[in-house]
Amino acid sequence: MKPKAGLLYEFMQTQKKRTGWIRLLSLALGIMTIAQAALLAQAVQQVFVESAPVRVWIPIVAILLGVMLLRTWIAYSNGSIGLRIAADAKRTFRSKCLRWLTTQPLLFARQGQTGGKVSVAMDAVDEADSYFSQYTPKMIEASIVPLMILVVVFILHIPSGLILLFTAPFIPLFMALIGIQTQKKSEEKFQQLAQFSGTFLDSVQGLVTLKLFGRAQAQQKQIEQRSLSYRDSTMGILKVAFMNTFALETIVMLGIGIVALELALQLVVFKTMRFHTAFLILLLVPEFYNMLKNVGTAFHGGRTSLGAIRTIEALLVEGTGAAKAAASTTASASAKEHNGKAAGSSTIISHAFHGSELKQAESSSVIAWHDLQFQYGDHAENFSLHAGSLAIPQGAKVAIVGRSGAGKTTLLHLIAGLLKPSSGEIHFYNQQLTPEQEASWLDQISYITQHPYIFAGTLAENIAIATDREVTRAEIVHAAEAAGLATLLTELEHGYDTVVGEGGRGLSGGERQRLALARAFLKQPAVLFFDEPTTGLDLHTEHILLDSMKQLSQHATVITIAHRLHTIRDADLILFVEEGTLVATGTHDQLLATVPQYAAMVRTQRQEVLA
């Protein structure tokens, strides 16, 4: 089983020193195996055939015991090196998986069930263990020790050597046939496990919704079907394993039996061979076949592990494609935009700054971007965003507007650093936003969504999560009061030490939003991102939140996804997004006068308010 170039090949390149030690120890293991057989044959010859006195064969037995101990230590050392390689492999693979999953969390959330991806990062990585801990050492041993035994047998007795030479290939041939089937079933197994994990996690998270809509029983049946499919996949692999063991044992017994029969004929019937030689060969032959048989068992486990490694590779390839978004697609999208402008199919309004004006504006900007583009995945039909170039002045109140699905949230996530652009650059305070600068950037922002996540723990702990520095209870209290949480907390028996459930269970929507605002008050960020957090709240709660947001925004740059007219009108700068393109920027009055699409959207919203 030759590893293909990729994740496995890259890792094994880093383990050359350890695999070199395994080869060296395997050579020593072959010498010890042959020495053990020779010493045992000599001891039996002197004790039972020559009836030698004890003083003659005692030294041989002592040396034999020493050789056996040394052989055991070498075999243990080989296995120990394999375990260390496996530990490094699991640490490396899991680190890569988690790095991809945390680098693009929003993107991965859009690409399928989280439970399935977590299953790959945890279960598939663990399943890869046997490739390195068992298969790799055994394959190296099999490439050295059986060959040494075969050479010795040929020297002792050519016919026996020929029997070994002609019967041995049946074992790797059978291994290859079984291995192909094993790897296929292993990949099916991990696919079924990922589906089962994803369905189960989705069901647990949405249990209340399923119950309210009367879908709990149907979802239970789906989970049961996923579970049975995973069981069937696992049993299929076990079936192949049992077949593999039975076939290997049969081949080994037949091989040893043929050699033993041939030796018996030479020793008893034709009397052309000495007992010592026949017995030595008879001791070496099982070692030869057992080594190949152990490789066969390890080969099965290795194929199963290889299926897990291929699953991990598929996840990382998916992440790579999602993170990069092919340049050819970007080029074709740019050409399409250019052609659209030439044909007059859409109105593209110049952005706030261009060329030297943009460079000049950056000196006083908090955020600026150049030729910013993003695409979900690398398929042409996937959603893409083209945001051009823009600089946002420090202290500005910016609103991102557009129809549903236009790309507002994607643009906000790009600016906030939660998504990585497919092309172009994002700068904050004249520094490019790179992975190295990400931590510094995130320290200066707060992002309040419509559904902020509340962790299981006390209210004080949930507020303090906004910053990694040590905060006092007085600071937490001040932040809560500024966010309008004081009244709620005084009504609770345990106040700030009140425990809330995971996801904010026990808190209303408005209370969760105020808790999120308290986090921002505690952090005092330079840039605030809002995803219209007042949507769906009652008028009283909305008024409280708006007052708190206004106070919080006094000394910060504010960028918000706006759905309501009063938010749009109050903005210093409006970014109008349509069909994945930032088509215009300006004030409310400027866009009303120059952008028909924007004016039509505003008229529609006014009619909805009046209705």
UniProtKB/TrEMBL annotation:
Q: Where are the transmembrane segments?
A: 21-44, 56-74, 139-156, 162-180, 236-261
Keywords from the UniProt entry: ATP-binding, Membrane, Nucleotide-binding, Transmembrane, Transmembrane helix
Its membrane topology: Multi-pass membrane protein
GO MF annotations, alphabetized: ATP binding
In terms of PROSITE patterns, this protein maps to:
ABC_TM1F, ABC_TRANSPORTER_1, ABC_TRANSPORTER_2
Q: Where is the ABC transporter domain?
A: 367-604
Protein known as: ATP-binding cassette subfamily C protein CydD
| Organism for this UniProt entry | Paenibacillus hunanensis
